[in-house]
Description:
Helix content: 40-55%
Strand content: 5-15%
Number of helices: 17
Shape: globular
Order of helices and strands: EHEHEHEHEHEHHHHHHHHHHHH
CATH architecture of the largest domain: 3-Layer(aba) Sandwich
Number of domains: 3
CATH class of the largest domain: Alpha Beta
Amino acid sequence: MKSIYWFRNDLRINDNHSLNLAIDRSDKILFVYIHDIANKRNCSWGFKRVGEHRNLFLSQGLIQLKNQLNKYGHSLNTYVEDPVNILCNLVNKHKIDTIFCESILSFDELKQIELLNKKGVTVCSLWHSSLLDKDQLPFSILNLPNNFTDFRKVIELKGIKPYKPIVLSKRISKIYSIDDKNLATLQINSINYDKSSFPLSNNEFMGGEQSGLIFLKNYFKGEQPSTYKKTRNQLMGKTFSTKFSPWLSLGYLSARQIFYFLNNYEKTKIKNESTYWIFFELLWRDYFRFIFEKFGKKMFYKKGLNFSSVEVKHSIKNFNLWTSGQTKNQFINAGMFELNSTGFLSNRMRQIVASYLINELSCDWRAGAAWFESQLIDYDVYSNHCNWAYIAGCGTDPRGGRHFNVDKQREIHDPQYTYQNLWAHS
Length: 426
């Protein structure tokens, strides 16, 4: 069988179930990555969907992926095009039988698969971005609990553990490589990331599977996992949090790989509240994925899952002040300046600036989610949208939205104005 493997947000060769499925079923294969041309256009809120920081992190990882495939005698063919158009052209040009890819449950990605099927293209998509497989869940997606605590308690009570990560199929060296001889590259500007908590210009923070695995191994060699819960709400620095999210977002690492190292750390070094909290965060990430499958496009509605009590307003003027870091609050401005300058922001600051946009500036939470999509190097549609809905009171949390007292947050997390001064406008 002649196949295409379409890399999406799974830019790794290890612990990649859909990639192995494609390799094991194919006699000839074409490896493809497509820079969706829609990302070069403005979104409905008036700015580009993907900014320069994520593009840089992506380009770094694609270079590593290409080099890894080269070792097995294969090429990575990259395109800047509409994914449906280019895939249909490749199917016709190379007489492809099946396209294999990762299943992504976001609106745009599902629409791409639907359009390919309508054009008569056979697509085999496989879900593999979660810690737990859906067949491990003790309830159907329709019966998924509508709050995380209930979900977590059932998973822990039943002792459900992730499957072990899988290795790359050995058949990759035996199947014939189809090379379309296409290599599209993105123009990336040189940016100084010296002040960033995730300086992706440094070798240890570069995008790619190999970089991610090295970082993962080094993280679990030290003491950081045993103190994670105490430091995770800090605002700045390279070591206050795990920093796994950028590599997870583009699939350079899988959640199962992280759990494998975490589990080994707990067996050989220490198991405490902090190591548990790393698992806790991975489980939250899973829950958001399953919530997306349960509620589908409702997650993109103005009132999210709350169709009665939440009033959603929007001030274009206030939104522009927020995105440019020109609000009346210098602590908020510091956070937005860090985000815009580096593509990264601590989880605590993400919550604070999100609350400020929604509650103090009276703006639509979906606009904030779209700005994060544009700026964050670790953008993940599931976590991003669900976290914004959580802050806005439009998600599954029964307690309503989250309204942060910004002055109090600054006093707790930046009492000496260290963070605020670091990111003050020069």
